[in-house]
């Protein structure tokens, strides 16, 4: 376990690329959406409140996958709060996030939650959601999808894999678990301040399965594509060893821990479920039989979500586009040659604010 | 006066370039800053308010020039409202604006207004400030610097100059004046809803002088640099004729008009002054005698602020960087060969919300 300083956590690939290559993430959030809408339907609201109704979207990325949940929440809430109470929707992501794509979707896309909905005000907050980013007691409903498996940082170098959770070194895996725990506690502390008493926060992110972490097939295929690209001479062994993507799933026990041991107050863990993740790419492949297309969509999605983190380890003078093109081609070919169904896990967490933070 | 559809209004040049090349704009806002701080000092505030204190920054661009005014406003307000009332600062600009530079300045720059100041929450809103972008009655103090001379669109083609206000065609100049008026009214209507009764809005933008518009020397030099670059074969006459930057100053009479004729209600024009703009580049040149440096800073500033609007008229296949490099070189050489002091005008406007909108 080396102690080279790893690169900081990177945002999703910009220029709208993540928006165009995140169908898996869209399918993932589907399992949490009913709980978010139930929260919108049940949350006690007052039309005469002097404050806007506050919704927060933590880890919004470029916004495409926020349109359906936010539109549905608005449509659930509007009859309950009346036409005159403004709804403010705050989209939180890293400073380096592509907010222009988010606002362009909001402005131009037919799927924008602004289309046909009045008195709704989107905001962007380019700051880490592991700190307080919204005023105290300003959020009635919180939502986060496909985001909380991204850690605030890489806790250590991971020479033998792209993800520390898949390292053969137990010290690396322990460092990952410690970072996951610290980030989860920091996230909850911040939300305990921001949520209005009685407010609800619905979270969907990568979990761990009963027998294994999950995602092994794709994580190994992506990592092997980088190894192959290094073997082909397009990046050095030193660069390969520096690669470390700061993401990992959490087990149910890891999620429950800070509630059980009293490190989090003012929030109640209302619901927690681990479910097998959908695989929309596999479903499409079973219909089409097109293995080349299966390779293409997986490779583009992996590039959109993980390319920036992996490429952050490359030497400053390295042409990132060339390397990412080669890795993407290698991954697409690898999948096309041996199509499989992905096996990974989502956790769905519902948290209630008790206001005692 | 042709009726080709001109390009939409463009944001300032991205990648932080505008942040690094906007010293003139920083000097401009200095004349309005005392009025903004007076508003912060005099505005009646209640520490026990259930809502955050709301500040809006309309036309924030990449944020560099917002740090000093916002920091000073926070420092004026904090002793008055106490430590517990959150201050929300909403930065408004076009969807295409480079918000990553804004949040990076906020996160990393020693001049960030977040540095050493607690309970302050920045937000970004990537929507045109010619419409309502904030909840009703949510803004206590409004600020806009170097932004309102940018129109919502080019009302018509301007074949004979880069700016319609300098066209020889009276129909073009009339179309510009009509657009300036429509935009000003739209801006005021939106602010009349957003401002809390008693709130104050301090505006600094390009005005017009008593005898002439102002900025003629630099506007003509920039336009002539494009003409020269076209003569050198780097862009076509057709592209040159399509160029039109949607910006122009307003006279005092144009600013007063909608208040006088009753088109705006709920807002009161509390103060209006037209002042000659500072020229920090000229001051530096008088100290250094370095005409080449004078040409360089003017050329980079003009590229940062006007390059995107001008380049929007280029053919899709045209390499914009090559053309902008050539224009910037031509402008720098032109200024270095004939250094002058710029003569242009700022207007400073203070508006009070009466709450009757």
Describe, in plain words, how this protein is organized in 3D.
Chain A has 357 residues and is α/β, with parallel strands linked by helices. Chain A has a domain at 17-215 and 245-280 and 343-353: Vaccinia Virus protein VP39 (Rossmann fold, 3-Layer(aba) Sandwich), CATH 3.40.50.150. The first copy, chain A, is 42% helix and 16% strand. The first copy, chain A, is built from 12 helices and 7 strands. Chain A has helices at residues 17-20, 23-30, 33-42, 67-81, 99-108, 170-194, 216-231, 237-242, 252-260, 280-288, 291-311, 320-337, and strands spanning 53-58, 87-93, 120-126, 139-145, 195-206, 267-276, 345-353. Chain A has a 7-stranded mixed beta sheet with strand order 3-2-1-4-5-7-6, with helices on both faces. In chain A, helix 6 links the parallel strand 4 (139-145) and strand 5. In chain A, helix 3 packs parallel to helix 4 (67-81) and helix 6 (170-194) packs across helix 9 (252-260). The two termini of chain A are 38 Å apart. The mean pLDDT of chain A is 93. Chains A and B meet through helix 5 and strand 3 of A and helix 5 and strand 3 of B.
The number of helices of chain A is: 12
CATH class of the domain at 17-215 and 245-280 and 343-353 in chain A: Alpha Beta
Task: Report the β-strand fraction of chain A as a percent range.
Answer: 15-25%
Q: Would you tell me the overall average pLDDT of chain A?
A: 93
Over all CA atoms, what is the radius of gyration of chain A? Answer: 20 Å
In which range does the helix fraction of chain A lie?
A: 40-55%
- Strands of the biggest beta sheet of chain A: in what spatial order? 3-2-1-4-5-7-6
Distance between the termini of chain A: 38 Å
Number of strands of chain A: 7
CATH domain topology of the domain at 17-215 and 245-280 and 343-353 in chain A: Rossmann fold
SSE order of chain A, one letter for each helix or strand: HHHEHEHEEHEHHHEHHHE
Main structural class of chain A: alpha/beta
Low-confidence stretches of chain A: none
Annotated CATH architecture of the domain at 17-215 and 245-280 and 343-353 in chain A = 3-Layer(aba) Sandwich
Largest interface: A-B, 30 and 30 residues
How can the largest sheet of chain A be summarized? 7 strands, mixed
Could you name the CATH homologous superfamily of the domain at 17-215 and 245-280 and 343-353 in chain A? Vaccinia Virus protein VP39
Shape, per Cα inertia axes of chain A = globular
Q: Oligomerization state of this entry?
A: homodimer
